[in-house]
Design goal:
Blueprint (H helix, E strand, L loop, with lengths): L5 E8 L5 E5 L20 E6 L3 E9 L5 E9 L2 H13 L4 E5 L5 H10 L4 E4 L14 H13 L11 H33 L4 H4 L6 H12 L4 H5 L10 H7 L6 H34 L30 E2 L16 H9 L2 H6 L6 H11 L9 H7 L6 E4 L2 E4 L7 H14 L5 H13 L1 H21 L3 E2 L7 H4 L3 H14 L11
Parallel strand pairs: 3-6, 6-7
Antiparallel strand pairs: 1-2, 3-4, 4-5, 8-11, 9-10
Helix pairs in contact: 1-2, 4-9, 4-12, 6-9, 12-14, 13-16, 14-16, 15-16
Length: 504
Amino acid sequence: MDWFEFVWRASEVSHRGKRKPVPVDKSAPEVIPDAEHELVIERVAAVDVAKAAGKVCVRLPGKAGRRFSRVWDVPARTGAITDLGEQLVESRIEKVTVESTSDYWRIWYYLLEAAGLSVQLVNARDVKNVPGRPKTDKLDAVWLAKLTEKGLLRPSFVPTTEIRRLRDYTRLREDLTHERTRYWQRLEKLLEDALIKVSVVASRLDTMSTRDMIEALIAGERDPQRLAELARGKMRAKRSELITALDGRFDDHHAELARLLLNQIDALAAQINTLTGRIEDLIAELPEAGAVDHGGSEDTDITAPGAADRSHAAPQPARGAHEPTGSAPCRVDPAIEAECARLGAIERLDEITGVGEHNAQVIIAETGLDMTRFPTPAHLVAWAKLCPRTIQSGPVTRGGRTGKGNPYLKGALGQAAAAAARTDTFLGQRYRRIVKRRGKLKALVAVARSILVIVWHLLADPLARFHDLGPDYHARRINIERRMRNHIAQLTALGYRVTLEPAA
């Protein structure tokens, strides 16, 4: 076999980065079917989005087999876009492409979708004009329409209206939480200016003991011993340290600024609680949240090439199967099925190690409940940018950058991965196995990816329940005889004669 008939597998990279050639028969042609969005479309429209108006291009079949384009400006107003939708429906447009420019695409996407048109949102990076050609809005709209009719654009993920509404609430809650954290940091900076070192003794400023001390300082109390008496619980054991830490120069202007900061913190906390209650109501109203769909993932090809593996703490079906990897779906007994029907999506995601109710709400708001939008776990992981992009040229295969992805989803998965890394579970052991050779950040990304794969399986199959494989999962799968042969061969190569005796 010739050298060019070898391919390289990234999974067989040694610790020095060398890749081993694996012979593969390339004599038989590989059939790669087109995706749904890659089909050639006869009647299309495209919108080059701007803030005040959009350049609309319609591509239609003409006489003698030639196609033609119509280009005109449409103001970015509700009435004008509604009229545009009616015109496109009358023209029997099959697909409308909208370029994702800032947040200006929303009015176009929402109104055209409401008109009954098939609308797809595409990344501006994928629809750039050909280099060397003039750059105008008209040419961009025509180019966008031509790419649409040839099926050369990948649509971006846009969730349903219910999920978009839930996402607005969860994202605002995250933003307000970050803003509240900034105010706590400003308060700590103010206390440092007042020579109050309470943050050295207390782990956090938002504890009840610390809050009482700050309130007493604002009220005019300056005696460190009396302030230290306000400590509660475990903080009372640190009374002597608190006395020295509270001996500072807290004056009236510090008290006035601290009062303003605490008022802002309390107002943000009230708003966050209001949003949390509203989020819980919206999730309860989701039609798919508590319903059991027996279709699930039975029609999904989870064994397709490139699909994410299910060997790492994959959610086990509620039937209690013992296989650590995915197995063929089957029916469950009525008792377990009733238990699964009782649990909603939040409760089942909450069973994953490291994923609490808060993170489960964010995950559902960002990914939705319909996993048919992501045919395999690999599609969801790639969309979330938790796996490196594969770059292959000739005999060389390397991994590219993962990309930015969805910051809200990656933030929730990062928090869950950090929490799971400290547990004595399969995910915790997975972190400890990877961190030795790849570092902390890459280990956390690997655990976050594993959590997202579990989320896909739980949402794709309403009868699935999370089952932890245990921290000794890999140790139980070790082939003892093969490891013994390897060690004996290594010692023999070093010039030793090995005799094995069983331990007492």
